[in-house]
Design brief:
The protein has about 190 residues and is α/β, with parallel strands linked by helices. Helices cover about 30% and strands about 20% of the residues. It is built from six helices and seven strands; from the N terminus they run αββαββαβαβαβα. A seven-stranded mixed beta sheet has the order 1-3-4-2-5-6-7, with helices on both faces. Strand 3 (about 65-70) and strand 4 (about 75) form a beta hairpin. The radius of gyration is 16 Å and the shape is globular. The model is unreliable at about 55-60 (pLDDT under 50).
Length: about 190
């Protein structure tokens, strides 16, 4: 599949803090901790600089943002989980929104679980992978910011993340939005 050609026809469908529109195409959801690089990954995969809003401040994505791609599929940028400078009530509302989307959205075809390649698997990442596995939701794990890990240490770091997530290391896709690493692998899934 020529993903660059596929993404040439992309449309931002909107931001949905509550009720989502009816789904017309299979959906791919991007989940991960706050500031793991979900929006940056979406921009890289869409071959765009500013399709999804990127911020250095955790917790900026506060609703489900949908992007239609060539009348074939939709990317869903979900709020991050974990640390965010937001009131507890807002974080709980985001959590309910994410859970409702992940476990009740019939159009959901795949979840892209993003983890930070610079760190071992975090408790919230392990919990999300366990939830997706138990619920039989199809998912892949993408280790973002791999360019910030020394090349000589990347393989060992990915293995450590895999051990923490209790999965084979070859199932984790190394990814860098800035260096354009792993885009073809993600699109091939």
């Amino acid at each position: 599949m020529d993903w660059k050609k596929l993404t040439s026809d992309m449309e931002f469908l909107g931001t949905f803090p509550g009720r989502l529109p009816d789904a017309l195409y299979p959906e791919v959801a991007f989940v991960g901790r706050s500031n793991v690089g979900k929006s940056s990954a979406i921009n890289a995969l869409l071959h765009r600089r500013k399709a999804a809003r990127v911020s250095g401040t955790p917790g900026r994505t506060q609703a489900v943002n949908l992007f239609r791609i060539s009348d074939r599929l939709v990317f869903a940028d979900l709020p991050g989980y974990g640390f965010a400078k937001a009131p507890e009530s807002a974080r709980k509302a985001w959590g309910r929104l994410v859970r409702r989307y992940l476990f009740k959205r019939e159009a959901l075809a795949l979840v892209v679980q993003l983890v930070d390649a610079r760190h071992t698997a975090q408790k919230v990442d392990i919990e999300m992978v366990d939830l997706l596995t138990e619920s039989e939701v199809p998912f892949i794990v993408v280790a973002t910011k791999i360019d910030r890990v020394k090349r000589a240490k990347q393989k060992a770091q990915l293995a450590a993340i895999a051990r923490g997530l209790r999965m084979p290391a070859d199932q984790i896709i190394p990814f860098s939005s800035t260096e354009k690493v792993g885009l073809d692998l993600v699109w091939s899934v």
